[in-house]
Specification:
By secondary structure, the protein is α+β, with helices and mostly antiparallel strands. It folds into 3 domains: about 70-175 and about 200-235, no CATH class; about 240-475, no CATH class; about 485-590, Immunoglobulin-like (Sandwich). The chain is built from 13 helices and 27 strands. Strands 5-6-8-9-10-12-11 form a 7-stranded mixed beta barrel. Helix 8 (about 315-330) packs across helix 11 (about 400-415), helix 9 crosses helix 13 (about 450-475) and helix 12 (about 420-435) runs antiparallel to helix 13. Residues about 1-35 have low confidence and may be disordered.
Length: about 600
Amino acid sequence: MKLKRKWMLLLAAGTLLLSGCSDQGETAMETEAAAEPAAVGEYVEKVTPSLADFHLRDNDAVYADDDEDSVVTMYLTVREGNSAEHTDHTWTEVNTYSKYWYDENNIPQYAVEGILQVGDENGPVPGEVGYGVNIPNAIVKIRGQSSTKREQKNYKIELKDDAGEWRGQQTINLNKHGGEGLRYRNKLAYDLMKEIPQMMSARTQFVHLYVKDETAGGSGVFEDYGLYTQVEQMNKTYLKTHGLDNNGQMYKIEFFEFLRYEDAIKLATDPTYDLDAFEDYLEVKGDDDHTKLIEMLEDVNDYSIPIEETVEKWFDTENLFYWMGFHILMGNEDTQSRNYYLYSPLNVNKFYFISWDNDGMMNTLEERIRGVQSHRGSWEDGISNYWANLLYQRMFKVKEYRDGLTKTIETLKAEYITPEKINALTDMYRPVVKPFVYRMPDIMYAQLTESEYEIVADSLVDQVEENYQAYLESLEKPMPFYIGEPQNVDGKLLINWETAYDFDNESISYDVRVATDYLYQNLVYSETNLRIPQIQIDMPSAGQYFVEVIARNESGKTQTAFDYYPIDGDKMYGTKCFYVMEDGSVEQYVEVEGDS
């Protein structure tokens, strides 16, 4: 079954395809308004659109041959390679270590050489990549960040320059999506995006992977690795294929809150430029001239410039509203500071948002079933999820921007993310994906029972409405804030926090508790209705302590601090942990992400 999209490019109305722009200022393209050829000497009405009229639009033809319920079979033979390409490793080594381990040890990521062959369940097929190939045509490594800690790995297969392409791509991402029970949420997101003219999507494909390990200790036979979802790599090839400017800037967001980050984000020509430090925030996927990026960040961080001026200069609010609105409706909370791309055409001073990594969406019911703490009701719901990000915080203090986002969310909900579309896609994926999930090897890592799988799949349509209501509720609450680092000031324990912001300018009060346990059963201090955002109490004895701050507006709506204490995979929202040392000094707990 194939999904088809219908849209219209109305050039005269200003809804234009942004495709490989290389002109600065106004484009030279002209559109004749007359339906018939003009006679000699006859006046011809023309339209020369301004750059302000341009909006990001996908290339519809990219998806013309998509077959959403098909499964492509891939055969991967892995071998030890050479030290120059860091491929002189075993398959076991490649699959053993997480990305955090490589970061901690400051070494390049292990890889192997591979022979990738595409075919069907009977074997490689003539005319497909790798048919008849006996020498390595690819380099293979694990991909992802937190997912690299899982037993089942995601893989990046990079075809060598002389090895051809698979569907126009040299980089093939195979994602297991082991953290979600349905194993098709990411594909669902991109297939929904394909139907939304204001969003960029990506090609996806279900893949059945077999791997033959010919490295030391390997079995030497093709082993079934189960079902994966291939997701198109976003790089210069992606830009070109989707009708965008492959000479432009493109950044994959690693951790980024639109702060200036002066120590890391510098021009590539700066003698102190460190690409590794830069890519702690933004991974460079396009042109490495960071001039525009730096100028944009300086404007975002300059409070003397009205935010409306900065937003209109550097961003397309249509693009931003649809990107954010989509993920709010999907409940994909892990998008506030990562999991998307920023793209800017070479000669256009605007940045556009492109989605990436959507498997965390629509997961509230699954979290409840699995006994995993849900973010429902926390600051990770709705607009407050984005409040720590400087650009969004400054933007959404402006009512017109909040209204624009709300209007976009309502349009998405009414026209594009409808129960009919979600059910149609679920009915298409379920008979394809579920049999793989509940047979070897994937059954060993299934997150749900078969009956639970059906319950969760049937619940997806309800979660859109839940997420919409949670968004509306978030507009009525105070915004989250950070608790400061507790201090010993003249023998007293001083704890302060940021003031909470309220969209309706209601007065805010605070409830504060300090205890020796994160359940606040052994209280050291408790106070309600505080108006000043700080407390100063007698210094407690040496030991571990927890402080919780809750903001409350005049309407009785409450919000926790951004701070949380991690415990057994859950989060104690609104809580900061700190220690009083024997010498009276105070140190706060800092979570370190990585391998234990």
